[in-house]
Amino acid sequence: MTTATMNKSDLMAPPVAQTIQQRSLIIGVVAAALSAMGAFAAPDSFYSAYLTGFMFWLGLSLGCMAILMLYHLVGGGWGTVIRRIMEAGMMTLPLMFVLFIPILLNLPKLYFWARPEVLADPKTDPKIVDIAHVYLNFNGILLRYVVYFAIWFGMAFLLNRWSTEQDTPEGGAKSTLRFRAVSSIGLVIYSLTISFAVIDWVMSLQARWISTIYGLLFIAGEALSAFCFAVVIEHILSKRKPTSDYLTSTEVHDHGKFMLTFVMVWAYFNFSQWLIIWAGNLPEEIPWFVRRLSGGWGGVGLFLVIFHFSVPFAMLLSRSFKKNVGKLVWLASWLMIMRIVDIWWHIEPVSHPTIHLSWLHFTILAGMGGLWMSYFFHNLRSRPLLAVYAPQTVRFLEPSHE
Predict the structure, then answer these.
(1) Does 400 map to a domain?
(2) Within 13 Å, how many C-alpha atoms sit on residue 301's CB side?
């Protein structure tokens, strides 16, 4: 395919996208119904499992937006082939906005600082009471939740709208400087907002505990999830036109290198947090790790060290492995599972001192995931798989491209 033969209809997603969209919706609805019943049948497991599922799928949406902005800043064929995948994932944010409402309406089920009886107890740490009155309260969580999503929506809307304009000859001729302007500021804003969101929704589960690097753990994880997801989707599409006409081992290799990068970054941030807290040995900091290294949770932590870092790191060192999308997709799928395990390890020990895995973890992840995937493929099918008249696409499809 070249710029001379480029046709908008020829770049639309293959019929398999519609098939997966329909099946995902069915799975999502059925699993969501089972999960809703679980909210009444097993409330002790439901809310922590719900937060785990929400943080994973929200992280995938935001990770797609972050990688898209990175692409607009640095360019490259690696981003041209997954640009529309990232945009389709980014535009699932409205769904995540709605899925946060059950958490918002049930804060006391998850957060001890939202329970009136705890705040009224004279034995409660006065610092917790002060934090609850000033920052961690329903009005504060509601206000910041609206602000976070408003900012994310705003950036996603602009990037998506300008990208749609590049499907026309007139829009394709416009400068890409506006993408760079939004992305340069957007990456900073994204980093700040997700860091504060993680403090509100995850770190505050243990409100006395603090970590200045905590938000970076989730940022690295979200970027890794987005690249793994891109590899999975491009594997599905690479067997069919039009992706089979333009996707080469060069772009797949680049995606594998990014996966390797963020596997190492994730490990570096986690090790840095552990090392600093271990060296400091402060009573305000060590309870977080004490809780996650006892009651069987230490085994989960070791599992993450081996299968979220060590094994993927060794496999991704192979150049031939990174260039083969058929092999890389299995590791990408595994790493997405590891991302869920990692989030589960962050959240679940607060509610369950001993290792705990409920059937609700599976139904909630499947329910949210089915709805998310259905929405994603709806977005992906609405436009060509490449921004037809974008300068990057024109250069990418030149005959010299291999």
Answers:
(1) no
(2) 18
Which secondary-structure segment (H or E) carries 246?
Answer: helix 243-246
Closest CA to 103 of 242, 210, 17, 204: 204
Q: What are 217-229's pLDDT values in tens digits?
A: 999 999 999 999 9
Q: Identify whether 267 is part of a domain.
A: yes
Cα-Cα-Cα-Cα dihedral sign, residues 160, 162, 166, 169? positive
pTM metric for this prediction: 0.95
Give the structural domain span for 166: 11-383
Evaluate whether residue 395 is within a structural domain: no
Number of independent structural domains in the chain: 1
Give the C-alpha distances (Å, rounded to integers) separating 2 from 13, 95, 164, 339, 395: 18, 37, 20, 38, 9
| pLDDT tens by residue, 233-266 | 999 999 999 998 899 999 999 999 999 999 999 9
The DSSP line for 29-81 is HHHHHHHHHHHHH-HHHHHHHHHHHHHHHHHHHHHHHHHHHHHHHH--HHHHT
Identify whether 2 is part of a domain. no
